[in-house]
Amino acid sequence: MNWKQAPLGPAQTNAYVLHNQEGEAVIFDPGGAGEAFEAALKRDNITPLAILLTHAHFDHIGALDHIRDAFNIPVYLHKREESWLADPEKNLSIAMTPEGITSRPADYLLAGEKTLPVGPFTFQLYETPGHSPGSLSYYHEATGTVFSGDVLFQAGIGRTDLPGADEGTLLGSIHHKLLELPENTAVACGHGPTTTIAAEMDTNPFLNGL
C-alpha cells in the first residue's frame, strides 16, 4: 500500500489517495478541481472505494460531490458536522462566493474512537477536535501514516480563530491523541508538506511545554 498527495482547489488543500497494488483506494478531502482530479485518478487506474473527510470546511469538500458521483462511492464524516455540508455559513464558504459551496449529506456518520474498515483498508479512528468540533484523524498502521486534516502541520497547528474552534481543545487533541502515535508516524497534513510525529515533537513551536 502507498499514498499520494494532491493539492487541490484555491486553498491548495491536500487531498490524499491511499491505494493498494490492485488500484483500490480511499480518498481524503477532495477540496477542488474535481474534473482534473477525476482524470488523474482514472489515468493512474485508481478505483476509489470511499471518501473520508477529516472535517467539513469548504476547502476540503469543494470536489466532494463530483468525485463521489464520478465513482459512485460513499462519504464518511463525523456526525458533529453532519449539517455543514449543506450549510455555506457552517462550512465557511459563504465568505468566498455569493452562493457558497454545498454538498449532499454524508452516507456514513462517524463518532467515537474505533477501528474503521473500508474495503481492504483498516484505520484507527481518532476524534481530534479543536480546529473544528468534528475533526477526525485516520491512523493507517499498515503505512505508518495519520491523515489528520488541519489538526497538525509542519511547525504549526490548525487555525483556532474560526467558529467552533478552540486552541486548548486542539492542543489537547494533538498531545493526547497524535503525539501518542509512534514517533516515526508520517503526518499527512491538510495543507503544506507532510511531516512526522517525531519532527513535530522536537521542533513545533506550538507544542513547547505540553
From TrEMBL:
Cofactor: Zn(2+)
Single GO term (MF): hydrolase activity
Keywords: Hydrolase, Metal-binding, Zinc
Domain named Metallo-beta-lactamase: residues: 12-191
Pfam assignment, any one: Lactamase_B
Keyword Transit peptide assigned: no
Full protein name: Glyoxylase, beta-lactamase superfamily II
Organism: Natribacillus halophilus
